[in-house]
């Protein structure tokens, strides 16, 4: 297929998908996926599950025949997707059936991976931990199920008193966390996807939902197809598929989004269009302190006014590349109280050297203008992984966190968790562990030079492809004989190439699971098919490892009553040895762990629904509370009296976990500052990485699906045609991209799906044969510690 043909095909596919989505929602009976009758395939057993891919949380129906997935359909009763799926979702069942599934534990001997027993594999891990528990680290994922993440969290923080546990969500959602927490005192959005059905305007801040969250994007297309007016504003650094549907495209110079947000605040105050009543009732003002820490310092309204005064449309136009008219339009839009505005963002805002700051500023302009707390008015971050919210954030599998939004550094939080876990006083270590970038830097540094992490256990992620600055943070492990890498996965990956021990993992519906999506929706599913060979559940691996440590006498593997940390009994009071795989299914381990975890969610009013209630539904949005009639009620809009059960009567809006203890949110000022690696004469281009419609993250699963792999078989470099011509590179020719960290060869695609401006390069990261993250830098937000994958200086030349 020629580049032109491919472009036309993809464009038509996008239009067809949007049209189909619109038709399905307008007339559900007209679309096969929303028909209440099952597809006409004989002898299939059907059950429900959330999709395995992104954080949207679409629900699918899984049809099983002869022990294998035989069909996938969108779930017509699911509020998230109403029977519709994206191209990845329709093929999700095929991710289990790649020809190279891992089926037995493998130990590297003399450079070769050799089969070993599960018992030997776990003994090796336990031996290394016993030698030095403080040098063991656990690296997980927003793809961990809630029970998997909770088990890992309990092993590390309740058992080993070791906080060196972090998820790959540190690489994608950490800045959203710090933004929410420092603004409202508690994490995750106040609104839900329902805002997309009520808003007048959607602003995408460095976000491409047409490809990355297509089901959510279809809700907007649906409304337009029914004659509703929904204005879409795309604020970005390159034209994308989302731009094709936008009413306004505002292309800004990378990093200057901070200035643009401050410019909106400037105009609200200068024009007197900010919501004075809302601000006086519900908000405080805050700014960065010298330490650039999470809480900053309190400032007055007059100080805030003075700080934003220099961000006039004229000044910001020169800095950002937006016109004065475009900036004025944004200011007037937020200044209109009759317009309902929903802001959406994802990696463009979060993967930012000032990611926390940019998150704060988006919340600030919504609070300052009063566009918060009513249907259609919401600042909402979107997640890229199916349980980045449910597991990384709610379970707290971050190096500084405890379950339920609590913190290891706070003594009352530690004591609360020690009580729930029935631990001796002082068991939980008060010092935060290493965040992802530092953890891998320590692992890839010789012990003699301060590299004090000696053993790394990786589950449900592929750091050998997804970490930034790969040479420094992953490849430098090669040759370090005292380092031991354990990788659990369903397939060989860039990570298993350097692994010393590879563990075959059960995937998706080969196990029970619970996910939490971007709108606080907790979703449950049951095991439907068996994993291949000796592949086993990640949650079992964690508990079996804990039992090995218990058998070796590690004191942390006992609670204060002397019972095993993962102690469960049957109805007769007899202990269930579910660490022995022969007994793993004697109980529903997911239900046992989830129900143990659930009380942790109450302190911060993140009350998740009971497991048995989740089993009856396609998910419930927390906080979920029991009504007087005994039923369970979800919450759509937090902090708003009309819907949030924890807001006191008569308060209207109440930020009941306010960081200032006065039920007020914080309106932050954070200044614009240049990126640490701006283009220059030597490296004159901006380099940005990201995803494509057909593939998910590192392609471990989607590249095993023939339809998806064939549709997008290789990564590429998008560059402007004039830049290509100036470099002497023609469309389809291979070029060399270089940064200060390395170089790579890759084909060029001009006038393709995305259209970067002159001086900019975009490369997706799904292709393990073309590791763009060898080139990216590890500079990160000082507060969230999230790296910036969207901006670094690069150059190009022909091969």
Automatic annotation (TrEMBL):
Mo-bis(molybdopterin guanine dinucleotide) binds at residues 88, 143, 168, 172, 255-257, 347, 351, 462, 488-489, 511, 538, 689-698, 773, 790. GO terms for molecular function: 4 iron, 4 sulfur cluster binding; electron transfer activity; iron ion binding; molybdenum ion binding; molybdopterin cofactor binding; nitrate reductase (cytochrome) activity. [4Fe-4S] cluster binds at residues 51, 54, 58, 86. Binds 1 molybdenum-bis(molybdopterin guanine dinucleotide) (Mo-bis-MGD) cofactor per subunit. It is found in: Secreted. Predicted to be exported by the Tat system. The position of the signal peptide cleavage has not been experimentally proven. Its main location: secreted. HAMAP family: Nitrate_reduct_NapA. Component of the nitrate reductase NapAB complex composed of NapA and NapB. This is Nitrate reductase. It comes from Sulfuriroseicoccus oceanibius. The lineage of its organism: Bacteria, Pseudomonadati, Verrucomicrobiota, Verrucomicrobiia, Verrucomicrobiales. The gene is napA.
């Amino acid at each position: 297929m020629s580049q032109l043909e491919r472009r036309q095909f993809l464009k038509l596919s996008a239009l067809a998908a949007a049209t189909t989505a619109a038709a399905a929602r307008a007339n559900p009976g007209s679309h096969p996926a929303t028909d209440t009758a099952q597809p006409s395939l004989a002898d299939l057993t059907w059950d429900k599950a959330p999709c395995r891919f992104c954080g949207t949380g679409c629900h699918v129906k899984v049809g099983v025949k002869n022990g294998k997935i035989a069909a996938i359909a969108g779930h017509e009763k699911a509020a998230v997707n109403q029977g519709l799926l994206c191209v990845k979702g329709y093929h999700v069942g095929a991710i289990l059936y790649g020809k190279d599934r891992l089926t037995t534990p493998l130990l590297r001997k003399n450079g070769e991976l050799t089969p070993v027993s599960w018992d030997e594999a776990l003994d090796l891990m336990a031996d290394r931990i016993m030698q030095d528990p403080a040098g063991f680290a656990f690296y997980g994922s927003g793809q961990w199920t809630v029970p998997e993440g909770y088990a890992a969290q309990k092993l590390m923080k309740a058992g080993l008193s070791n906080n060196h546990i972090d998820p790959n969500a540190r690489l994608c959602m950490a800045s959203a966390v710090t933004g929410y927490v420092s603004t409202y005192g508690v994490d995750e959005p106040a609104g839900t996807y329902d805002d997309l059905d009520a808003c007048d305007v959607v602003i995408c801040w460095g976000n491409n939902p047409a490809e990355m969250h297509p089901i959510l994007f279809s809700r907007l297309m649906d409304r337009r197809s029914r004659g509703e007016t929904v204005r879409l504003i795309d604020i970005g650094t390159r034209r994308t598929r989302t731009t094709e549907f936008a009413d306004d495209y505002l292309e800004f110079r990378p990093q200057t989004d901070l200035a643009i947000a401050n410019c909106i605040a400037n105009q609200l105050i200068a024009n007197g269009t900010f919501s004075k009543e809302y601000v006086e009732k519900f908000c405080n003002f805050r700014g960065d302190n010298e330490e650039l820490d999470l809480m900053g310092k309190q400032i007055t309204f007059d100080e805030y006014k003075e700080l934003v005064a220099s961000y006039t449309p004229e000044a910001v136009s020169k800095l950002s590349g937006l016109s004065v008219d475009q900036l004025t339009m944004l200011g007037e839009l937020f200044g209109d109280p009759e317009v309902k505005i929903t802001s959406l963002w994802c990696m463009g805002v979060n993967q930012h050297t000032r990611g926390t700051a940019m998150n704060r500023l988006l919340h600030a302009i919504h609070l300052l203008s009063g566009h918060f707390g009513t249907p259609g008015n919401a600042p909402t971050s979107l997640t890229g992984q199916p349980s980045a919210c449910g597991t990384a954030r709610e379970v707290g599998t971050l190096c500084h966190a405890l379950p339920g939004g609590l913190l290891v550094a706070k003594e009352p939080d530690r004591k609360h968790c020690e009580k729930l876990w029935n631990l001796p006083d002082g068991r939980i270590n008060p010092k935060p562990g290493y965040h992802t970038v530092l953890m891998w830097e320590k692992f890839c540094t010789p012990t003699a030079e301060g590299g004090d992490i000696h053993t790394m256990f990786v589950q449900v992620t592929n750091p050998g492809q997804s970490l930034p600055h790969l040479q420094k943070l992953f490849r430098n492990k090669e040759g370090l004989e005292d380092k031991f890498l354990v990788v659990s996965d369903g397939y060989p990956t860039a990570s298993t190439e350097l692994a010393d021990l590879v563990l075959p993992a059960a995937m998706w519906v080969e196990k029970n699971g619970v996910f939490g999506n971007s709108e606080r929706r907790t979703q449950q599913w049951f095991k439907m098919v068996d994993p291949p060979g000796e592949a086993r559940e990640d949650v079992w691996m964690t508990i079996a490892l804990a039992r090995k440590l218990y058998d070796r006498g590690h004191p942390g593997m006992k609670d204060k009553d002397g019972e095993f940390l993962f102690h469960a009994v049957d109805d007769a009071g007899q202990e269930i040895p579910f660490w022995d795989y022969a007994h793993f299914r004697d109980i529903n381990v997911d239900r046992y762990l989830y129900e143990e975890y659930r009380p942790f969610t109450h302190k911060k009013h993140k009350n998740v629904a009971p497991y048995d209630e989740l089993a009856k539904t396609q998910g419930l949005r927390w906080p979920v509370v029991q009504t007087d009639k005994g039923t369970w009620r979800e919450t759509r809009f937090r902090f708003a009296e009309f819907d949030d059960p924890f807001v006191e009567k008569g308060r209207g809006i109440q930020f009941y976990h306010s960081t200032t203890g006065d039920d007020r949110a914080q309106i932050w000022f954070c200044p614009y500052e240049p990126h640490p690696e701006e283009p220059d004469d030597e490296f004159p281009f901006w380099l940005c990485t990201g995803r494509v419609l057909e593939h998910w993250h590192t392609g471990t699963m989607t590249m095993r699906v023939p339809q998806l792999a064939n549709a997008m078989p290789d990564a590429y470099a998008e560059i402007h045609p004039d830049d290509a011509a100036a470099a002497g590179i023609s469309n389809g020719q291979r070029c060399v991209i270089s940064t200060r960290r390395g170089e790579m060869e890759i084909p060029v695609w001009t006038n393709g799906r995305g259209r970067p401006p002159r001086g900019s390069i975009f490369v997706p990261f799904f292709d393990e044969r073309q590791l763009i993250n060898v080139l990216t830098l590890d500079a990160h937000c000082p507060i969230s510690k999230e790296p910036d994958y969207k901006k670094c200086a690069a150059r190009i030349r022909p091969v």
